[in-house]
């Protein structure tokens, strides 16, 4: 899950539509084509038969995916945010990459923006995920803090966008806002269709699949972003899909959402990621990167976050007071200005974990 998306969705949407107008779009063949294709995903070839898929902004997709084309079938890592977004991804894979049917789906973790497309796949497809993902999908995930905080306010965002459209006198701004409004309204409609579908094949530690001329390893490295994050590792291609367990982009960090995290355990789990023999990290948000140092930086952030939250709680501050007080400004250079201020949901999560460890 992308942090702060909730607060900045309007800007993100406007930004996306503007960016699309001017930026080159790289198509599946790796060739740059000018202007928007109007398609919701853009594919980037990372290795033979391995494609990074990311949203273009014409539809709410929210998270990245990985497409793995094998001898007689296709594999998909993460299923996007809604059934509609997943159907669009599958259709575009068929149009642009391969007619081979998707036989395997892997979920990096249980969060809505990576797994709420699962329901478009029937039981003829192996939907593989950590047993924690299945357990969470069988609870009321739609009602929980994370889904509610990112999805529940969509009507409020739509109302806000309409008001800004009514107020603006700038034609270019209005066009951008109207495009963003269309995307958000379509997303709100798509969300109504969601019925979480849990993985139908689960594992707890490691699973290795040799199919269609490809080796795919699934690794649970310990609790982190959630209680069941899975690394999808392609040893021959030296590519690892990390979901939200580790996010980044070349040259700069991307902060993961901490609202369901095991913040105190996460740095040690990240240490185990370094033991995998990869060159390229494909994150759930951000873009593929090679800089391992970003893992060190994120470990430092997490340790500092946990230390500050623990100290402030021990001093008797409420989670809200701690959110105001925490100082993460030294991470702004790496993660952007917003990172200087703690996310209230992350502090609440730290307090939940501390309450279990040190009740008071
Ligand atoms: Zn997530």
Describe the structure.
By secondary structure, the chain is α/β, with parallel strands linked by helices. Helix content is 39%, strand content 19%. The chain has helices at 5-22, 83-96, 112-115, 131-137, 145-151, 154-167, 171-191, 266-273, 293-314, 319-325, 332-335, 344-357, and strands at residues 25-26, 32-33, 41-47, 50-55, 65-69, 74-77, 102-106, 126-130, 201-203, 206-211, 214-219, 231-234, 239-243, 248-249, 252-253, 280-283. The chain has a seven-stranded mixed sheet with strand order 3-4-5-6-7-8-9. Strand 10 and strand 11 form a beta hairpin. Helix 1 packs across helix 7 and helix 8 (266-273) packs antiparallel against helix 9 (293-314). The protein is globular, with a radius of gyration of 20 Å. Mean pLDDT is 90; it is low at 2-37. Zinc ion is lined by residues 1, 109, 111, 225, 244, 257.
């Amino acid at each position: 899950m992308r942090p702060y998306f909730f607060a900045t969705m309007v800007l993100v949407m406007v930004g996306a539509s503007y960016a699309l107008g001017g930026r080159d779009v790289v198509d599946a063949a790796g060739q740059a084509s000018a202007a928007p294709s109007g398609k919701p995903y853009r594919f980037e070839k990372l290795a033979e038969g391995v494609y990074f898929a990311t949203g273009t902004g014409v539809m709410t997709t929210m998270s990245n995916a990985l497409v793995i084309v094998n001898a007689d079938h296709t594999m998909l890592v993460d299923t996007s945010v809604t059934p509609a977004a997943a159907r669009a991804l599958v259709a575009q894979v068929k149009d642009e990459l391969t007619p081979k049917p998707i036989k395997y789906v892997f979920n990096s973790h249980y969060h809505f923006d990576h797994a709420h497309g699962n329901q478009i796949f029937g039981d003829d497809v192996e939907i593989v995920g950590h047993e924690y993902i299945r357990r969470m999908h069988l609870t009321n995930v739609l009602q929980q803090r994370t889904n509610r905080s990112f999805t529940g306010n969509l009507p409020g965002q739509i109302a806000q966008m309409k008001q800004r459209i009514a107020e603006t006198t700038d034609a270019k701004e209005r066009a951008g806002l109207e495009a963003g409004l269309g995307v958000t309204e379509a997303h709100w409609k798509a969300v109504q269709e969601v019925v979480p579908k849990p993985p139908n094949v689960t594992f707890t530690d490691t699973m290795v699949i040799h199919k269609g001329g490809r080796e795919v390893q699934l690794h649970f490295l310990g609790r982190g972003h959630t209680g069941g994050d899975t690394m999808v590792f392609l040893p021959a291609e030296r590519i690892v899909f990390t979901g939200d367990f580790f996010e980044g982009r070349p040259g700069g960090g991307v902060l993961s959402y901490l609202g369901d995290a095991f913040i105190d355990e996460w740095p040690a789990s990240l240490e185990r990621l370094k033991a995998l023999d990869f060159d390229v990290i494909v994150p759930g948000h951000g873009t593929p990167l090679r800089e391992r140092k970003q893992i060190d930086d994120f470990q430092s952030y997490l340790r500092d976050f946990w230390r500050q939250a623990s100290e402030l709680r021990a001093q008797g501050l409420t989670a809200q007071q701690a959110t105001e007080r925490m100082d993460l400004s030294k991470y702004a250079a790496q993660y952007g200005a917003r990172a200087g201020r703690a996310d209230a949901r992350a502090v609440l999560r730290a307090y939940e974990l501390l309450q279990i460890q040190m009740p008071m």
